[in-house]
């Protein structure tokens, strides 16, 4: 096993975080209104100021659909009978979203407590250094 570069480690952390939170983010947006994949992607990117980009929404949607949290329907969008597939949250999806949001907040608070306690004990950590790419 080779050493993982700082850039790869950052990318891996971000990818893992998105994998863990993408079902919640998807259901959160679909809880507002039905959307098609491109709109979901654009909405996530817009609301996060381009920080939270999801390139692979289809696998997330298919998994949520298999679990019964999302349903899909087609809607004609042009006179030439062109259709677009929309996704909508189901009642069980709304219940699951409530559960996920509660668990997310609980875990986030726990992580924040651990971080704050760690930072209080270790004054050598500088939070402004997080985006320093010079160590590649």
Total DSSP E strands: 2
- Helix and strand string, N-terminal first? HHHEEH
In the CATH scheme, what's the topology name? Arc Repressor Mutant, subunit A
Please identify the structural class as seen in this structure. Answer: mainly alpha
- Beta-strand proportion: 5-15%
Question: Would you tell me the overall average pLDDT?
Answer: 87
Largest sheet at a glance? 2 strands, antiparallel
| CATH C-level name | Mainly Alpha
Distance between the termini: 18 Å
Helix tally equals 4
CATH architecture, please? Answer: Orthogonal Bundle
Write the layout of secondary structure elements.
Layout: H1 6-30, H2 37-47, H3 57-66, E1 70-76, E2 83-89, H4 91-121
Antiparallel strand pairs: 1-2
Can you describe what's shown?
A hairpin with a 6-residue loop joins strand 1 (70-76) and strand 2 (83-89). The mean pLDDT is 87. With 136 residues, the chain is mainly alpha-helical. A two-stranded antiparallel ribbon has the order 1-2. It has helices at residues 6-30, 37-47, 57-66, 91-121, and strands at 70-76, 83-89. The chain starts with 5 loop residues before the first helix and ends in a 15-residue tail after the last helix. It has a single domain (6-129), classed as Winged helix-like DNA-binding domain superfamily/Winged helix DNA-binding domain (Arc Repressor Mutant, subunit A, Orthogonal Bundle), CATH 1.10.10.10. Helices cover 57% and strands 10% of the residues. It is built from 4 helices and 2 strands, in the order αααββα.
């Amino acid at each position: 096993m080779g050493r993982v570069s700082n850039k790869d480690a950052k990318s891996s952390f971000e990818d893992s975080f998105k994998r863990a939170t993408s079902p919640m983010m998807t259901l959160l947006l679909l809880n507002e209104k039905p959307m098609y994949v491109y709109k979901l992607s654009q909405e996530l990117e817009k609301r996060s100021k381009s920080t939270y980009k999801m390139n692979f929404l289809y696998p997330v949607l298919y998994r949520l659909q298999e679990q019964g949290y999302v349903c899909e329907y087609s809607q004609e969008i042009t006179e030439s009978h062109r259709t677009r597939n929309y996704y909508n949250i189901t009642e069980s999806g709304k219940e699951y979203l409530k559960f996920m949001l509660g668990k997310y907040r609980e875990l986030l608070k726990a992580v924040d407590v651990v971080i704050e306690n760690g930072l209080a004990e270790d004054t050598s950590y500088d939070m402004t250094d997080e985006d320093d790419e010079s160590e590649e």
